[in-house]
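Give me the fold.
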Amino acid sequence: MADRLIIVESPAKANTIKKFLGGSTKVIASMGHVRNLPKSKLGVDIEKDFEPEYINIRGKGDLIKTLKKEAKGAKKIYLATDPDREGEAIAWHLAYILGIPEDTICRVTFNEITKTAVQEGVKNPRRIDLNLVDAQQARRVLDRIVGYKMSPVLWKKVKRGLSAGRVQSVAVKLIVEREEEIEKFIPQEYWNIYAMLKDPKSKKTFEAKFYGKNSKKMELTNKDEVDKILADIKDKKFIINSIKKTEKKRVAAPPFTTSTMQQEASRKLGFSLKKTMSVAQGLYEGVTIPGHGSIGLITYMRTDSTRISEMARAVAKEEIEKRYGKEYYENRYYKTSSEAQDAHEAIRPTYVELNPNEIKEALTKDQFKLYQLIYNRFIASQMAAAVFDTMSVDIQVDEYNFKANGQKLKFKGFMTLYVETKDNEEQEKDTQLPELIEKEELKSEKIDTKQSFTEPPPRYTEASLVKALEEKDIGRPSTYSPIITTILERRYVEKDKKQLAPTELGKIVNNLLMENFGDVINVDFTANIENQFDNVAEGKEEWKQIIRNFYTPFEETIKKVEKELEHVKLEDEVSDVPCDKCGRMMVYKYGRYGKFLACPGYPECKNAKPIIETIEEKCPKCGGNVIVKKSKRGRRFYVCENNAKGECDYISWNKPGTEEKETAKKKTTTKKGRTTKQKK
């Protein structure tokens, strides 16, 4: 029998920790939660002050027997589940199953799975933090009540199997509202005037853009305004009015939090949130590295703090000075958001000496990509700022002004290693101007005008939705991935390339919920509840009081809605496709695999058929119609309609007509011209 028994969630984590402790210590995995609320019923006793009715998870009977047997023979039991509210709750449930009193000193936590951190954690166990447990229970119980009370309304009025949720429904609401913005958007015309000017001394040309009149900015909205300016400046001199030279610094982005890691992995690597968290979990729990064995490569990946330890700061300094030189290091601290819990450090590598390229062979392709991203981001966060020499030139043409801006990278600093990407933002480029002199006359080589139109706001991507949820204080680091995964699986939202678009089902469900549960499916309410959960975690609020305050008005709303909707029937959307069995116009229905056509004469006529999406382009092989299909992962591909008949074998990931363009792109590099539209 073991002197010490340590229980963690996963086998990978168990293997890594066992290596650091050795001796008569046994480390086993609980495989996540062992108790939960039942799936078949509400599982919350309303009459007994909202007491949760936990049960052992089905299928874990043998595992629980093993845990009890091992615990019975151990002199000391430590519960080393993840260092967050969910991990604290798992430890609490394990203590209940194993008969460990709540005030027993048995809880062990560590922010990283390294030898030092694990040994230090085991030396300093504590009691289970019941405040953290209660914060998790508050979220679990409130979300269960909302889901189990609101979802049946959708079953009655839309279809069975749908779900509503306090946070997921707000996420759908944001996506639907963005789609409505896009649909209602009216493009506004605007114009730009560009002058290609030559410096008489250096003979170099550069571009200046129209700014305004008498140093006041002008917005050009039609061709008449542009033509008047062109007529006014014809044959007029372009004189340099003023030159302003400055030095600009750009500071590195802070180390990753959960949300910034998810956003960057989406933008830079094309990872979904679910994939990012899965790969990060593996890097945290342990990877076998030659010469090191199984070790955790990153710190805990669920955090909203940008803080790093002084030890990590010192190691980063040593690495930067060794690799780049002393001038590249800068001792930098980042301000953590006031809403952040700051319980953990930022996400960083645990062993800075393990450079991603040196251990690449020991990692999977995805592990390498994410580890390199985390590693480079962390090192760059402690590097000196990039320095640019900038020049801003005001050019007078009679009473009109043109402006030219240039910059030159003087010192690369952190940009040597890593540059953060942003949604819909161009990266900084060198646009060097010649050495100009005030009052000098420039030669006008060419004047161009460009008509453009404003664009609607872009659809959310997974990255930009996470950013919006975080900014609105909706959800927490551990919830972003499950939220987006759920709304995609429920088919309320679908991915079009990287963009999230609401389905018809998503719009119907959102409208129904907003009309009847607007107070719950509400950004402010959701954010306020999150803050109350935080108060519970800090011991400032009693968790059941949150549920009591919420439940009474919510239950009254449920009863009112059920009564009002009792005689309301949602009409199915009618298609333009006649039923080929009875002639009625078929309607759109929603099933397990999405939208399909069904005869409204059911049950007399049970005819149903899939919706076939075709495109204008014809099959390049036989000239037949091309059908759009989706892979299991939701990626669109193109198939000839004659494929099913065995008459044509055309199938492609690329839309017909684009294959040649894709090939040409790979063979040649084309210079980008100006865009004709501007993001608003």
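The chain has 17 helices and 29 strands.
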